[in-house]
Sequence to fold (298 residues):
Amino acid sequence: MQVPGGEKTEIYAHSIGYYMQMVPVLSGFEAFLKEKGHTSAHLQIGEDVGQLDMVACASPRWGPQWLGGTSQSMHTIISNCVHRNAWALKQLVQTRPAVVFLVGQASWDMFRQSFGHLIGSKATLPTLPEDGPFTLLRMTTLQECRLEFSTNIGAEEYALSTRLVITPHFSYGENFLPQFRMSPQAFDAFAQNYPSAAEFLQKDSRINFQRRPGSFVAVGMERDAAGILSELKEKYPTAASALMPDLYDPHAMMTDVLKSMYGRELTYTDSKAGAPGYLTRSSGPCTLQKTPAFLAVE
Fold:
């Protein structure tokens, strides 16, 4: 935004929670880059990371009641926008990001239905994951899942190899709290074995404990996560050891993926001659400094 000299104006800034979910990821990776010697590293939303939608229209919710009233009408929209017109895939081919974060299980389901034959991973991703996108987040951050293809159209060759990471939906901040997640049966067994620790998880004021029908038990640490984990390990060491495999920190898990790609598919070009530094990846369609090196897709 440019305001003419001598003019005064009021500017209001309001952060939208959806887009802010990438801020801790960029901040964590920026700190990592500085540790690697890139002391002037500065990453920004809209430049180092971008967003694209798989449909070319607003979609408040992906359910029949919002998209024409029937399951068939919903699948017609998906078929036209995601598969036949392939808006997202065309943009992926053009930008060739190093990594794509697929936002929410509905996005993954649409993507898998249209492009599943182009996706490869060591362990097959379940169609009905036990804990929804959290199961998929764990799987795709611990192992590489890739969208890969190459083809010739006319005399032009197109190729793409991009890592996929599936995340919980960005619209709900509680999804990104550091949290323990267990099936109801697993939590009941934990509570029977470690009643004092289970009571602590359910009653501590810093914790948002949720047990909803048909869902995993979520123990979200709304504030002072480090203090909660320290207290657990000090007061209930055996229970804490049993809990650790069920700990999720989505922002940190996403950041760890970027760290693991550093030096291979993601690098950083330092500022020089007055030009700002920028995040780079091993391949891309052009030499522009600021094209997103990774994307969030819904």
Notes: The chain has a mean pLDDT of 88. DSSP finds eleven helices and twelve strands in the chain. Residues 179-248 form one domain.
